[in-house]
Amino acid sequence: MVYYSKQSRLSFNAIEMSFNHRDIEFLYEVGSLRHLPRDWRQQVGLNVANDLEHTIRVIWLSLLLARREGFKDEEKIIKMALIHDIAETRTGDFNYMQKVYVQADEAKAAHHLFAGTSLVDFDTKILSEYTKRRSLAAKIVKDADNLDVDFELREMANQGSLMLDKWRKTRQLVRDKKLYTKSAKLLWDELDQVDVADWHMTANKWFKIPTAGK
User: pTM of the full predicted structure?
Assistant: First the structure.
């Protein structure tokens, strides 16, 4: 079921009617996430995934964790993963040092972001649930958010970065104290069993097709 605010219902009555302009503005704003780098690049000294790239893997991580945890409402998981950092279109991203001194009003930013759009219920329901971290869905998505850092640290190490070794104790602490689900902890434990290049090296035609290149 799709929910509309009163303003949205007035603007969107049938498929032949014009789109709500706020919906179009929203889509442009979401697209701007690809221009928003996550600010831990200050510490690692390398280019890191932007907010949009980060969100894509968080969605897939969330779905995998949800299935391992037996959580059936995948629609909710996808929606929650989609919006988990959405307020950063207006607040920007803050790294762990900056958060000591700066507190963003993400609730206000998200409220203004969704206001007047056909997705206004995301603000009042999905995002609120995620922020409270009480439901299994919220815990799964937050675990995915944390795990994406560990994936990216290994990708950086593959390019020569030393940050994975320097942050091992910190990331172990995240694993032990911050991850909510057993599935997330198990995935964290098994990360180093798979090389970052295995996905294409082991699927390479030289391994799969004996006559390749002959």
Answer: 0.84
